[in-house]
Description:
- This protein is an alpha/beta fold.
- The protein contains five helices and eight strands.
- It has two domains: 50 residues, no CATH class; 98 residues, Glutaredoxin (3-Layer(aba) Sandwich).
- The chain has a five-stranded mixed β-sheet with strand order 4-6-5-7-8, with helices on one face.
- The longest helix has 12 residues.
Amino acid sequence: MGLAALGAATMAGAQPRAGVACSEATPVGKTVARDGVTLRCTRTTSGNVWRRVGAPAPSARPGRYLPYSAARVAATPGTKILFFHADWCPQCRKLDQDIRANKLPRGVTIFKVDYDSNKDLRREYGVVIQTTLVKVDGKGKLIDKYVAYEAPTLDNVTKALLK
């Protein structure tokens, strides 16, 4: 059933359900309680939809570990961390393996930056040793920095940068 049909069904008196379109007559922000669940009519890019109150935002996607590119960092929503990695560095390899072996927190993306070939980026963030992780905001400005050389685990990175 398409969104228009779902909206018509809701308008015709059907009970609202999470993920179903709100009718055009339903004001954005209206809440209803049904079977112990509270729903709110929410504006989205594809139209107004009923969402559970307190449910995670659709943008809170699973954590990801991606190769670095400036365009990819700029286009990625959520928390962004740059991991300055060198293939020749044993501590970097340990952290890389630990990141791959464990689940990243929702909404967090770690970008693997080649330490040797990104000297300008290293200079921009004051990175002087591999295993440095830099948390940046949506405009690429430094928020926080952590060197994981002594304890190269995702758990330590999470404690240091996602406090």
